[in-house]
Design goal:
17% of the residues lie in helices and 38% in strands. The chain is of the alpha+beta class. The longest helix has 9 residues, at 10-18.
Length: 93
């Protein structure tokens, strides 16, 4: 079973857990391109910060539903539009 682990800020983790944030964004950089393009995962593990092993309150597992590449403006990335991998995080296991 192949898992993509994403460590998130508390604000974004809580939004995903509440079901109000359908996608998690990662900039289209060489680092993220190498990790995502041409790869497939079984699931995604979302972590609130860097929790201790066994801390289930700060971890969410989701089914891997892929990503799309899009251009958007988001406060987290600054005032200019950026190209991101928009990773689908809505479907629970």
């Amino acid at each position: 079973m192949t898992t993509l682990t994403l460590n998130l800020k508390a604000e974004y983790f809580d939004q995903i857990k509440a079901g109000t944030k359908p996608e998690e964004y990662r900039l289209c950089t060489p680092y993220w391109s190498k990790r995502l393009i041409g790869r497939s995962f079984t699931r995604i593990e979302l972590a609130k910060g860097y929790p201790k092993v066994g801390d289930t309150e700060r971890r969410i597992s989701r089914k891997w539903n892929g990503y799309i590449i899009k251009t958007l403006q988001h406060d987290h990335f600054g005032p200019d539009p950026v190209t991101v991998f928009a990773i689908n995080v809505m479907e629970a296991l």
